[in-house]
């Protein structure tokens, strides 16, 4: 280990197996550090949404990092955490979600984190998500280069979540016909998406460098900060070279957040009837847990979460991304393309994506256009094959792991 540069990396979740874009992003950056000769120690806690297990820790140590260190709350701190969580939830309900509360970084966690950094003496501190900033001891280690991976702009995401989630939770299980029409429009979250906290931007300025996953968010952070350097580093995804059959259903892959469910509901109400009118056999496989229980419409099969998406993608005809709002980059688009699938996406969800309209997928502006493109791909196997092959090559050349490693090398001192 002598002579190796040392990195401390904070990530709030267990990223193996990778179930979300944030998980994939974490592993991509850890792999780049490893390829550049860095020795990394990952810091996390038992507050992870997908709990750490002995096997996941061992896999991380075998493939990505030198060590994984986890913080465990004391019984007293669990009581404090519950109070802080109630307070954060109350603030969210009145439209003022906190950016960095004790609900995500209890005091003991902060002290433990600083002691880990003291014992490790790193050359680099790399964190993710602004709400976990309290864990990074900037002022104790001012000479250490510090990076934050802005997977999304937290306060904008929280504001949209607070606006949308209650409207999708009024009746459970939810039915498409029960959702008010205004909730399924691109304008519904437009005001909330602009609610970016000045405090969040000031937090970014504590870091020497910010990694932004989309061009739009890179520009927002660049305009709102004074000292930090902002870099656009897009998502890297491994290309999977398999012989796709393109004989199965269309596919949508999504984590259990309200933005994914809003997109599915919009598709079910406005696109699906147009498609099924022309192609009665059309079926969409919706993979992943939905935000709340949903009585899916005829033509949509809820597949639930899976540990490995490769076999799903291998047989799927093509992928869709009907989201009306969200933050960061829709990694599901890049991931599907890396597995050889063309993607039909709304313009809002395709921002910063590698889709080239009509070449490796379609970018649409209306439900009618979305339906037309779905019908086109569903009825033409040769078209699915050609566009899927183009999608795979696009990711191979534009979103390779080698590109991320090269860009990170330029950013690191």
Please describe what this structure looks like.
This protein is an alpha/beta fold and 413 residues long. The chain has two domains: 183 residues, Rossmann fold (3-Layer(aba) Sandwich); 149 residues, Glycogen Phosphorylase B (Rossmann fold, 3-Layer(aba) Sandwich), CATH 3.40.50. Helix content is 40%, strand content 16%. It is built from 14 helices and 15 strands. The strands form four sheets. The chain has a seven-stranded parallel sheet, with helices on both faces. Strands 9-10-12 form a three-stranded parallel sheet, with no helix packed on it. β13, α11 and β14 form a beta-alpha-beta unit. α1 crosses α14. The protein is globular and about 65 Å long. The mean pLDDT is 93.
Brief summary:
This protein has 413 residues and is of the alpha/beta class. Helix content is 40%, strand content 16%. The chain has a seven-stranded parallel β-sheet, sandwiched between helices.
Properties at a glance:
Rossmann fold, three-stranded parallel β-sheet
- The largest beta-sheet arranges its strands as 3-2-1-4-5-7-8
Return the CATH topology of the largest domain. Answer: Rossmann fold
DSSP E strands, number: 15
The helix count comes to: 14
Largest sheet: 7 strands, parallel
Percentage of residues in strands: 15-25%
Unreliable residue stretches: none
**How far is it from the N-terminal to the C-terminal residue, by CA?**
19 Å
> What is the CATH-assigned architecture of the largest domain?
3-Layer(aba) Sandwich
Radius of gyration: 21 Å
CATH class of the largest domain: Alpha Beta
Task: Give the domain tally.
Answer: 2
Mean pLDDT, to the nearest integer, reads 93
Order of helices and strands: EHEHEHHEEHEHHEHEEHEEEHEHEEHHH
């Amino acid at each position: 280990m002598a002579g190796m540069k040392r990195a401390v990396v904070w990530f709030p979740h267990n990223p193996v197996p990778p179930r979300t874009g944030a998980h994939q992003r974490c592993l991509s950056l850890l792999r780049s550090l490893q390829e550049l000769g860095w020795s990394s120690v990952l810091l996390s806690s038992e507050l992870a949404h997908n709990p750490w297990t002995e096997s996941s820790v061992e896999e991380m140590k075998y493939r990505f990092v030198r060590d994984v260190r986890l913080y465990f709350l004391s019984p007293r701190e669990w009581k404090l955490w519950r109070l802080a969580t109630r307070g954060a939830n109350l603030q969210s309900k009145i439209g003022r979600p906190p950016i960095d509360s004790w609900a995500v970084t209890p005091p003991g966690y902060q002290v433990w984190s600083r002691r880990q950094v003291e014992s490790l003496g790193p050359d680099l501190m790399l964190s993710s998500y602004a709400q976990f900033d309290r864990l990074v001891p900037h002022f104790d280690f001012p000479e250490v280069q510090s990076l934050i991976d802005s997977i999304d702009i937290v306060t904008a995401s929280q504001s949209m979540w607070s606006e949308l989630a209650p409207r999708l939770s009024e009746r459970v299980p939810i039915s498409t016909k029960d959702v008010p029409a205004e909730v399924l429009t691109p304008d519904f979250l437009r005001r909330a998406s602009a609610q970016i906290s000045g405090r969040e931007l000031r937090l970014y300025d504590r870091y020497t460098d910010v990694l932004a996953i989309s061009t739009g968010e890179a520009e927002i952070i660049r305009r709102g900060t004074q000292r930090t350097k902002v870099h656009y580093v897009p998502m890297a995804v491994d290309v999977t070279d398999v012989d796709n059959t393109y004989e199965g259903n269309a596919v949508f892959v999504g984590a259990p957040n309200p933005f994914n469910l809003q997109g599915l509901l919009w598709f079910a109400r406005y696109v699906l009837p147009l498609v099924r009118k022309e192609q009665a056999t059309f079926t969409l496989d919706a993979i992943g847990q939905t935000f709340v229980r949903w009585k899916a419409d005829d033509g949509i099969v809820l597949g639930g979460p899976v540990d490995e998406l490769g076999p799903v993608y291998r047989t799927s005809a093509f992928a869709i991304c009907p989201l009306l709002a969200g933050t960061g980059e829709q990694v599901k688009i890049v991931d599907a393309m890396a597995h050889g699938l063309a993607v039909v996406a709304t313009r809002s969800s395709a921002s910063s994506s590698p889709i080239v309209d009509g070449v490796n997928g379609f970018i649409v502006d209306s439900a009618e256009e979305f339906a037309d493109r779905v019908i086109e791909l569903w009825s033409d196997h040769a078209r699915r094959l050609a566009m899927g092959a183009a999608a795979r090559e696009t990711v191979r050349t534009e979103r390779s792991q080698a590109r991320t490693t090269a860009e990170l090398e330029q950013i690191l001192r």
